[in-house]
Specification:
With about 500 residues, this protein is α/β, with parallel strands linked by helices. It has helices at about 50-70, 110-120, 120-130, 135-145, 150, 160-170, 175-180, 195-200, 220-230, 240-250, 310-315, 325-330, 375-400, 415-425, 440-450, 455-460, 475-490; strands spanning about 1-10, 15-20, 25-30, 45-50, 75-80, 90, 100, 155-160, 175, 185, 190, 210, 235-240, 260, 265-270, 285, 300-305, 345, 360-365, 405-410, 430-435, 465-470. The strands form 7 sheets. The chain has a 7-stranded mixed sheet with strand order 16-17-15-14-20-21-22. The protein has a 5-stranded mixed sheet with strand order 3-2-1-5-13, with helices on both faces. A two-stranded antiparallel ribbon has the order 4-7.
Length: about 500
């Protein structure tokens, strides 16, 4: 028996087939092989065509089926992880009206800030746990004001994962966790935040049916199954945004547990048992995948936009031609801690919530033309990203979330010895890396939702730790000195 998990990112769609009994993944792949286009017609904008997501998903499905060589009838359930906070609009025929306004698009910031001021900070924070900020409902407000013809066509607004599930099953629906990530869930009323919909002038009927995060969410339609090489009726039994799903992937479900990622954006995600919030909304609180009104589980999310995208920029514009990421990691190790005085501020990918929605851009400080080279810049980039994590984790610490142990997948920036050791040294946290990723986590989530696993403990009994990184006491001082220098550069 197999489980099929998808992870819809902004770079690609990844898929994994997981053996439900052994936990092994006989096939994992992604598509497209080049990063998906992010359309930026204006500064601060970021859009993608949902049809590209769907075509990529179909292609990667065929790839993993061919690689695994299994009978599609052996697939028992499907789970979906997806890029958070995106806005997908469909009409009465469930067809996409316009390109998706994705997570890193910052055009909606003024709409969220105005709503926060008009409604009142205390009401927003106590009931939404956040400012409406640059999230999904604020993006919808931008469409309403600037594209009234498109707005008039809307039957439902949804998140990227809702859209993908709808394409599979024909059923438009969403989850409490999903509404929460769009800052559309009222934690006081345990219902969609009517006061915010009323403020923006949105009809509550724009919300599709609300279903549980785990459980039967619809079966695959016959025509879709034939197109993808799958079997009609395979149930979709789990969906979640990429960061709650990453936490699930690492079995981070309970208070005090911490998960992290270092993909296009970098994230630290901790679980609270109280509905707490940051008064400045620099980090954000959402309903976790296992949230219920009776059993509060709040995911506190720190997001750094310019992480692996900075690493990619360094690879394409600074590193020697043709140098692979693994070779960049080795080159960074040849430079001492602190990059001999260079500090890189990595915030070059839109507004940063951790900086109260400011856009400082990416900047490089302390270059000496006589002694610095490409290797220094590579190391400074990896250190700068780790420093930005530390900056946000200090805010999380003030909310009562300790960072004694950080769990992450053995992937992306956590493949960099410099990045992970720097992060461990400056936070004092032990970092545990596991053989998992978002698509594998989504597959396990599908197993929970389908009742194949009786609980999360059984689902993650086969999760394997591959690397443990401990703080280097002998290097703590010099690492923190480099961090202090970085802070001064940030605050100039």
């Amino acid at each position: 028996m197999y489980l099929l998990g998808y992870d819809l990112g902004s770079s690609s769609v990844k898929a994994s087939l997981v053996n439900a009994e052994s936990g092994e993944a006989p096939a994992t792949d992604f598509f497209p092989k080049r990063e998906m286009e992010i359309k930026a017609v204006k500064a601060g904008w970021a859009e993608q065509d949902p049809e590209v997501w769907w075509e990529s998903l179909k292609q990667v499905t065929k790839c993993v089926l061919a690689e695994a060589g299994i009978n599609p009838a052996e697939i028992a359930a499907i789970g979906i992880s997806y890029q958070m906070h995106g806005l997908v609009l469909v009409d009465k025929d469930l067809r996409v009206i316009r390109d998706s306004v994705i997570w890193c698009d910052s055009r909606a910031v003024p709409y969220g800030e105005k709503a926060f001021d008009r409604i009142g900070g205390d009401k927003c924070l106590s009931r939404l746990l956040n400012s409406p900020g640059n999230f999904t409902l604020s993006k919808l407000a931008w469409v309403k004001e600037n594209e009234p013809d498109n707005y008039a066509k809307i039957k439902y607004y949804m998140l990227p994962g809702d859209y993908i599930a709808m394409r599979m099953t024909g059923i438009p629906c969403t989850t409490v966790s999903g509404l929460s990530e769009g800052i559309a869930w009222d934690f006081t009323e345990n219902a969609p935040a009517k006061f915010l919909y009323d403020y923006f002038g949105f009809d509550m009927n724009l919300i599709p049916e609300i279903i549980p995060t785990f459980g039967m969410q619809g079966g695959m339609m016959a025509e879709v199954a034939e197109e993808m090489g799958l079997t009609k009726g395979i149930p979709v039994t789990y969906r979640a945004g990429d960061q709650p799903n990453n936490a699930l992937s690492l079995n981070v479900l309970n208070p005090g547990e911490i998960a992290a990622t270092g993909g296009t954006s970098g994230v630290v995600y901790g679980v609270n048992e109280e509905a707490m919030y940051d008064p400045l909304s620099r980090v954000n609180s959402f309903a976790h995948v296992n949230y219920t009104p009776e059993r509060t589980r709040i995911g506190v999310l720190l997001c750094i936009n310019g992480t692996a995208i900075l690493n990619t920029w360094i690879k394409n514009n600074v590193a020697p031609e043709g140098l692979a990421y693994a070779e960049m990691n080795e080159l960074a190790k040849t430079i001492p801690i602190g990059s001999q005085g260079i500090s890189i501020i990595p915030f070059g990918n839109g507004a940063e919530r951790v900086l109260s929605n400011k856009e400082p851009g990416c900047s490089i400080h302390g270059i000496n033309f006589l002694c610095h080279g490409k290797a220094h810049l590579i190391r400074a980039a990896h250190e700068g990203i780790a420093f930005s994590f530390k900056y946000g984790m200090d805010i999380m610490n003030c909310m009562g979330i300790a960072t004694k142990t950080i769990r992450a997948g053995h992937a992306n920036l956590f493949l960099s010895p410099v990045f992970r050791q720097t992060l461990s040294n400056i936070t004092g946290a032990t970092i545990e890396l596991y053989n998992t990723d978002g698509s594998i986590g989504a597959a396990r989530g599908a197993g929970i939702g389908a009742g194949i696993y009786k609980n999360a403990e059984e689902a993650f009994s086969t999760l394997k730790k591959v690397i443990t990184v401990m703080p280097e006491k002998e290097n703590e001082r010099v690492s923190l000195e480099a961090y202090d220098r970085w802070l001064k550069a940030l605050n100039r």
